[in-house]
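queue> pop job 88
queue> type: inverse folding (structure -> sequence)
queue> payload:
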């Protein structure tokens, strides 16, 4: 259903790799709500993924950009404003990657070259995106910038590895840049802390299946899907949330504030053991 919540708004969406990607769903939802945008991803992802199908569906152009390269980002923002015919109203940063996770390196034995690369891609790139937009004055007043995070930034999830540290830094950038960008031109900056979701990046985490099931039974509403995350992003890009900035917003069916659920409790009680 469309309420044209984003009619007349222009944006850039980073990170749609395939139809499972959260950014893919965000692009579809923004399109349905009347937005116009440019899609972008790392040059290597252009070859791996199916972004062109999404672009066709949304009437969007694709501009490759490595989010760690200031040169690529400047080119991306310049061309996007040319294509869309003016300054932007929203940006989605939906980017994450850890080589240590991919290689299965234990947190107590991290490879620091890999750590630096993952940190640059997953966290510092958010600062680079913001700094590029800020210096170019590329975002309209009351514009909205979002990045996607995970609760391992606040609580220990052993197999989330160095991505937990990357997410903590990412959320801090939203607060710090949110202050400066709000003061300069009333631009909002937030992170959404999403439930575990079956995507290429998610499935890379060891034992991810278990993560997903555990979170689902611990959340009163169950896990939030990628489509529900896209709906939340639309609301945060819209004018209905103009005064929300510098926040880490949990979008997790209540997981973050649940101490224990009855389903989990039952696994440890005699009654629960008998019933199962
Ligand atoms: N899947 C989950 O369980 C989950 C939960 C919470 C938060 N998140 C976050 O959501 C975001 C999107 O991940 P996803 O789950 O949709 O997986 P995904 O694999 O579909 O998306 C990750 C994207 O990052 C892109 N990317 C990697 N390196 C890049 C670079 N140098 N420059 C530009 N783009 C680059 C990839 O090409 C890919 O499109 C990530 O920040 C992820 O950490 C995911």
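queue> result:
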């Amino acid at each position: 259903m469309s309420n044209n919540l984003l009619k007349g708004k222009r944006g850039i969406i980073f990170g749609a790799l395939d139809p499972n990607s959260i950014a893919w769903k965000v692009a579809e939802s923004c399109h349905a709500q009347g937005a116009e945008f440019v899609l972008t991803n790392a040059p290597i992802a252009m070859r791996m993924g199916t972004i062109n199908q999404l672009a066709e569906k949304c009437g969007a152009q694709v501009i490759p950009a490595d989010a760690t390269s200031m040169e690529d980002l400047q080119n991306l923002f310049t061309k996007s404003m040319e294509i869309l015919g003016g300054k932007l109203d929203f940006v989605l940063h939906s980017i994450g990657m850890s080589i240590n996770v991919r290689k299965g390196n234990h947190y107590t034995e991290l490879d620091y070259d890999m750590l630096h690369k993952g940190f640059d891609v997953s966290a510092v790139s958010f600062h680079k995106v913001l700094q590029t937009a800020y210096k170019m004055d590329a975002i309209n007043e009351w514009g909205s910038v979002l990045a996607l995070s995970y609760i391992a930034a606040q609580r220990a999830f052993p197999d989330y590895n160095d991505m937990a540290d990357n997410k903590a830094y990412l959320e801090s950038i939203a607060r710090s840049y949110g202050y400066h960008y709000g003061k300069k031109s009333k631009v909002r900056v937030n992170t959404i802390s999403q439930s575990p979701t079956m995507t290429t990046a998610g499935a890379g985490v060891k034992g991810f299946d278990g993560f997903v099931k555990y979170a689902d039974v611990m959340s009163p509403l169950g896990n939030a899907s990628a489509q529900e995350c896209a709906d939340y992003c639309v609301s945060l890009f819209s004018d209905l949330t103009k005064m929300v900035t510098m926040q880490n917003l949990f979008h997790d069916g209540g997981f973050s504030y649940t101490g224990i659920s009855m389903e989990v409790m039952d696994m440890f009680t005699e009654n629960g053991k008998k019933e199962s």
